[in-house]
Amino acid sequence: MSEETIVRQAAPTLAGIKTGSMFPYRFESREELLKDIRAFNRIFVPRGMCLLLLRLMEKSALLYLYRPQSLEKDLEDSEFEPMFDGVKKTLGGKRVGLFGSYGWGDGEWMRNWEDDCRACGINLAAESVLVNNAPEGEGAEACKALGTVQSVCRLEDASSASLSSGFSALQTAY
Q1: Where are the beta strands (DSSP E) in the chain?
Q2: Per-residue pLDDT tens for 79-101?
């Protein structure tokens, strides 16, 4: 795969104008394609980008060059926040458990989310669970414990379920 192909297909992402660029790519050898993707990622990852193989067909592939931090921010702003803003006023006086995972930062967004819930009169049913990336060990146990809090059922945001970091699931009682 040539640098020219990447530039022609993903220039706005390379320039930081777009979050991501999806494009088809024709190849001769699967092994060479995978080798090229790894080589490009050694260049892209330190620069805040990632090249993913989304779909592999006989002699063509669907590739996605994107900026992970920009994608998380875009989805948070366009998916979770509007959903939560739409329901938070109906949650006043109800017990809510908060769970969130992150891949970078220190979880400041969780503290802001807790403050937002309190300001809307939402009762936190338990201490919020915040984990780095996927829940493991103590984080997994804390998630299980949060799930056993009486009168708490789950309402999960679809975008947060599909991404491993940066998003949260809203859990509330009815």
Answers
A1: 20-26, 50-56, 60-66, 95-102, 123-124, 129-132, 153-155, 168-172
A2: 777 878 888 888 888 888 887 77
